[in-house]
Write a structure and sequence with these properties.
203 residues, Jelly Rolls, globular, binds N-(carboxycarbonyl)-S-(naphthalen-2-ylmethyl)-L-cysteine, binds fe (iii) ion, iron
């Protein structure tokens, strides 16, 4: 894999393509049980990205802060199980990128409609920063912003497309990152949407 962003990062182009239909049908089942919702940040802003989760832990935000929770606050039920197709892809991706011991227990599913964005942030709600993060993109392409360890550091940008898998670990784990506002478009299989599956070890 090419580490176009430097040490600890890998872009696996098209790595998810062979399982795209399994991923999308599993995703549909998850969203039927724990629907997508636009959560509120501690600062009181409603996020433009809609989210749900599967796996033992789910990432949530509300006025009290960010956290991982075993329970979906909307349904008051545990999050749907992580489908085998999700788990297999995440573990194989991490291994291909040089992280043979990845055991994800959380999968955040982000849904972007045109205009939705994720401003520059760090992922620091997890306990074990030695475990990588695996991200799978489906649907419309996105411009990924990748900064440094400080918010003010210069950002690089790359376009990620349907089927791409990105792996972040080691010294890249705490780098700032975000997604530029999604451009309008139509994807043959997914429509006018981008999904991102983000696998983490949270517990
Ligand atoms: C780089 N999601 O949910 S995934 C997020 O496409 C998030 O929905 C974006 O950032 C999305 O927190 C990007 C790629 C990603 C995730 C975590 C990282 C890149 C990362 C942690 C460190 C460095
Ligand atoms: Fe993030």
């Amino acid at each position: 894999p090419k580490d176009v962003f430097g040490v600890g990062t890998a872009v696996l182009s098209g790595f998810a393509l062979s399982v795209e239909s399994e991923l999308l049908s599993s995703l549909k089942g998850i969203a039927e049980r724990s629907p997508f919702r636009n959560m509120v940040t501690p600062g009181g802003f409603r996020m433009s990205v809609a989210m749900t989760n599967c796996g033992r832990y789910g990432w949530v935000t509300d006025r009290t802060g960010y956290r991982y929770d075993h329970i979906d606050p909307e349904t008051r039920q545990p999050w749907p199980d992580m489908p085998a197709s999700f788990l297999q892809l995440a573990v194989a991706s991490a291994e291909a990128a040089g992280f043979p011991a990845f055991s994800p227990d959380a999968c955040l599913i982000n849904r972007y409609e045109p205009g939705a964005r994720l401003s520059l942030h760090q992922d620091r709600n997890e306990r074990d920063f030695s475990q990588p993060i695996v991200s799978v993109s489906l649907g419309l392409p996105a411009m990924f912003l990748f900064g440094g360890l400080e918010r003010v550091d210069k950002t690089q940008r790359i376009r990620i497309v349907h089927g791409d898998v990105l792996v972040w670990g080691g010294p890249a784990r705490l780098r700032y990152h975000g997604i530029a506002p999604l451009r309008h478009g139509e994807h043959d299989l997914v429509g006018s949407i981008r999904y991102n599956l983000t696998f983490r070890n949270a517990g």
